[in-house]
From TrEMBL:
<dbReference type="InterPro" id="IPR014756">
    <property type="entry name" value="Ig_E-set"/>
</dbReference>
<dbReference type="GO" id="GO:0015918">
    <property type="term" value="P:sterol transport"/>
</dbReference>
<dbReference type="GO" id="GO:0032366">
    <property type="term" value="P:intracellular sterol transport"/>
</dbReference>
<dbReference type="GO" id="GO:0032934">
    <property type="term" value="F:sterol binding"/>
</dbReference>
<dbReference type="InterPro" id="IPR003172">
    <property type="entry name" value="ML_dom"/>
</dbReference>
<dbReference type="Pfam" id="PF02221">
    <property type="entry name" value="E1_DerP2_DerF2"/>
</dbReference>
<dbReference type="InterPro" id="IPR033917">
    <property type="entry name" value="ML_PG-PI_TP"/>
</dbReference>
<dbReference type="InterPro" id="IPR039670">
    <property type="entry name" value="NPC2-like"/>
</dbReference>
<protein>
    <recommendedName>
        <fullName>MD-2-related lipid-recognition domain-containing protein</fullName>
    </recommendedName>
</protein>
<feature type="domain" description="MD-2-related lipid-recognition">
    <location>
        <begin position="23"/>
        <end position="137"/>
    </location>
</feature>
<keyword id="KW-0732">Signal</keyword>
<feature type="signal peptide">
    <location>
        <begin position="1"/>
        <end position="20"/>
    </location>
</feature>
């Protein structure tokens, strides 16, 4: 019986560390070359002043040798931040046909206000949009650089 409670306790601890997030495509009618099955956010909930990793489980029917990730963040619907990254810094290039993962990590600034955020991420090869997804997440009242 005690092993059962230990297993349940471990499961509950792990379930707060990673959160699978539902995604929506920016254009439901688009035929994107890259299909995204979901996003894992780790750790979750996200705490200010701490590193967070967004991992995208993806699939492609074509080899991708280069590209960019364009990330746009909104807070309560207001655009607050944009950044661009080399795709090959976020995954292994060339990306082979089939399943692959894209992982982006960064530290949330200590002054980041808690609340609901939405993120729009485009994967581009030159000017061609390989995929475009949107998802939501929350930043909690956790630790911040000022608290340390």
């Amino acid at each position: 019986m005690s092993r059962f409670f230990l297993a349940i306790s471990c499961f509950l601890c792990i379930s707060t560390i990673v959160r699978a997030t539902d995604i929506k495509y920016c254009n439901d009618n688009a035929q994107y070359q890259v299909k995204v099955q979901g996003v894992d956010i780790s750790p979750y909930p996200i705490a200010r002043g701490e590193q967070v990793t967004f991992s995208l489980a993806s699939n492609t029917d074509n080899v991708i040798s280069k590209g960019k990730l364009v990330i746009e963040v909104s807070y309560f619907g207001w655009h607050i931040h944009s950044e661009t990254h080399d795709l090959c810094d976020e995954t292994n290039c060339p990306v082979a046909i089939g399943d692959f993962s894209v992982a982006h990590s960064q530290v949330m600034p200590g002054y980041t206000p808690p609340g609901p955020y939405s993120l729009k991420m485009k994967m581009l090869d030159g000017h061609k949009e390989l995929t475009c997804i949107k998802f939501s997440f929350d930043i909690g009242f956790g630790s911040s650089v000022a608290d340390m």
